TrEMBL record:
Domain Prepilin type IV endopeptidase peptidase: 150-256
E.C. no: 2.1.1.-, 3.4.23.43
Name listed for the protein in its UniProt record: Prepilin leader peptidase/N-methyltransferase
UniProt xrefs under InterPro entries: Peptidase_A24A_bac, Prepilin_IV_endopep_pep, Prepilin_pept_A24_N, Prepilin_peptidase/N-MTase
Domain Prepilin peptidase A24 N-terminal residues, every copy: 34-139
Keywords on record: Cell inner membrane, Cell membrane, Hydrolase, Membrane, Methyltransferase, Multifunctional enzyme, Protease, Transferase, Transmembrane, Transmembrane helix
Gene from which the chain derives: pppA1
Transmembrane segments: 29-50, 120-137, 144-162, 168-186, 193-214, 234-264, 276-301
Location(s), subcellular: Cell inner membrane; Cell membrane
GO cellular component terms attached to this protein's record: plasma membrane
Membrane topology field: Multi-pass membrane protein
Function: Plays an essential role in type IV pili and type II pseudopili formation by proteolytically removing the leader sequence from substrate proteins and subsequently monomethylating the alpha-amino group of the newly exposed N-terminal phenylalanine.
Catalytic activity: Typically cleaves a -Gly-|-Phe- bond to release an N-terminal, basic peptide of 5-8 residues from type IV prepilin, and then N-methylates the new N-terminal amino group, the methyl donor being S-adenosyl-L-methionine
Amino acid sequence: MDIFRVRLYSLSKPLWIIEINMMGIHDYFVGYLIIGAVVGSFLNVLIYRLPITLANCSPQYELHGQEVGISSHLKSINLFQPGSFCPHCNESIPIKYNIPILGWIFLRGVSRCCNKKISIRYLFIEILAVIQTLLVLMIFQEDLLICTSLVLIWTLTALAFIDFDTYLLPDCMTIPLLWLGLLINIDTLFTPLSSAVLGAVSGYLFLWLSYWLFKIVRGVDGMGYGDFKLMAALGAWFGVSAVPFLILFSSLFGIVAYAVFYLFDRKENGKEINHIAFGPYISFAGILYLFIGSHVTNLFFQ
C-alpha cells in the first residue's frame, strides 16, 4: 500500500510543477499567448498548404488511395506564397482579418468576400496551440526542454490534422522529427541515446510487423508506412520503454474514434467510412506521453 501511495504521488508531480511555474509565467503571459496564437496560425497554413505543395511536385499525387488532381488556381501555391486567401473564392484576406484568433472572431466565422462560412477549425487550432504552449511552459523549466517540447507538440499537431484530412504523413516532417529525437538525446534530454535508438527501431518494427500480419490475414493494408515512421520518431524521442505505452494509447484513441465514427457519422460525402487515419492517434499519444509518460512508465517499471 505504501508503494502504491508513492507511485500515485509521482503521478501527481506535474500538478505541483504547474503550481510553481505559474508564478514565473505570469509576467510574460501575454507574450506567450501571442507566440502560441501566431504558431497556431502558421499550423493552419501548414496543414492546408503542405499537402498541396507536395502534390504540385508531381503531375498527380496519391491521397487516400486515389489519384487526385490539383485545380489550376492552386498550381503555384507553396507555404509562403501567395498571401492568405479565402478558401472559397480565392480573394486575398486583408491583414486586419488575418490576426490569429481575433480575425475569426471579428468576422464571426463568415468571409467578407463571399459570405461563406469559415471553418471553426481554424480558430480551434490557434486556441489549441496557445493552450499547448502554456502547458509546456508551466510544466517544464529547462530552456532546452521547453524549446524541444514545443517543437514536438506543434509538429505532432500539424501531422495529426494533415493525416486526418489527407491520409498522409509527409516524410519531410516525420523523418526530421525522428533524427531530431536522436540528436537531442545525445545528452539524455528525454532518454539515453541507446534507448532512443532502440525505441526508434522497435516502434517502426512493431507497426511494420502488424501491417504485414494484417495484410496476410485480411488481404488489405491496415495502415500506411507514414505511421511506422511517426511511431519510430516518438520512440526516438522517448526511448524504448515508452513504445508499449505509445502503442497502447494510440490504439485506445483509435478504437474510441472508430466507434464514434461508426455510431454517429458512418457516411462521408455519401460513402461508407471503411477506414480512419491512424496518425492523429499516434500524435495524440505522443502529446499525452510528453506530459505524463515518464510518470506512467515509472509506475509500471518500478
